[in-house]
Amino acid sequence: MDQLLAIRAFARVVESGSFTRAADSLNMPKATLSKLVQQLEAHLAIRLLQRSTRRVTVTQEGQEYYEKALRILHDLEDIDACFSAVRSRPRGRLRVDIGGSTAREVLIPLLPDFCQRYPDITMELGVSDRPVDLIGDNVDCVIRGGPLSDSSLVARLLGYGTLITCATPAYLKAYGVPAYPDELRNGHRLVSYLSPQSGRPFLFRYEREGMKVEIKPAHRFGVNESNAHLAAGVAGLGIIQTFSYALHPLLRQGEMVEILRDWRPAGYPFHVVYPQSRHVSHRLRLFIDWLVANFAEKLALGSESGT
Q1: Of 3.10.50.40, 2.60.120.260, 1.20.1000.10, 1.10.10.10, which CATH number belongs to 3-85?
Q2: Residue 108 needs a FRET pair 20 to 30 A away by CA distance; which of 46, 100, 253, 297 works?
Q3: Domain 163-263: homologous superfamily in CATH
Q4: Higher confidence at residue 27 or residue 178?
Q5: pLDDT score for 197
Q6: For residues 113 and 76, which has the higher predicted lDDT (pLDDT)?
Q7: Contact at 8 Å (CB) between 271 and 158?
């Protein structure tokens, strides 16, 4: 038995709550992973996991073993990272999750710099507006916008996005240009961005001289993915509110026109987050520090546009 591999297999089952997901994250057959865990249990002469057709639960002894084994795995990773740092060649895999338009317009254009600096780090980018299970899906970190509500996550602020309200010139010619947010309630077509988690539409938000206005869109069209939401606005389906970095080239080319500029809301925070229980590897520290140094400028792209 490869005891170290067996310990890694057991730890992933505990973290993911599933033999199937653990095997997928370790890129090994489920039968191989199951055999490793069985061999580890036989070696220790204790039951680490209780298996049923529906779920896997950790025994008390299994939880104690996991906590001690995790310290060993972290120490080994720190040792490897230390020597990699000495050689200035950090290596390994990073799994990062990010929303669609933020990936396309902000992170991906920046990544050539990171990849050139750290050529031995393999990046796996999960692109989706849907929330992920960082532990269960074995994701190192997530980049997301909005207020933080989960206290089990560690977060670092990356910067602020600017929300812009806009529509096509053809739409504004047909329906008129609103001068105040309340005018959006009267005859205008609003394209809703729907929460990928709940399905509820996000409010259109406005601020001016201490006054805050929120418009709940009575939408005729809603979409729960940021790139498709932008495409709906470009297609002339109605007014959208989205981030300046996604709109920047469209505003510059005249395909979209900003409205209610004087009512732009306060900056929308973006963070990189990871679980408190997740060991921060050397490569993850490098990536987060690089994000903090580079993300804000790209995030603010288009925020000064007066178009």
Answers
A1: 1.10.10.10
A2: 253
A3: Periplasmic binding protein-like II (3.40.190.10)
A4: 178
A5: 84
A6: 113
A7: yes
Considering the chain, what is the average pLDDT of its residues? Answer: 88
Task: Kindly give, in sequence order, each residue whose CB lies less than 8 Å from that of residue 215, ignoring residues fewer than 6 positions away.
Answer: 181, 182, 184, 185, 190, 203, 204, 206
* CA distances to 22, 61, 239, 280 from 136, in Å: 8, 21, 38, 17
Q: What does each C-alpha distance from 205 to 51, 148, 165, 213 come to in angstroms?
A: 49, 18, 9, 6
The percentage of residues in the chain with a pLDDT greater than 90, rounded to a whole number, is: 55
CATH number listed for the domain at residues 89-158+270-299: 3.40.190.10
Return the residue matching tokens 């170290």. 4
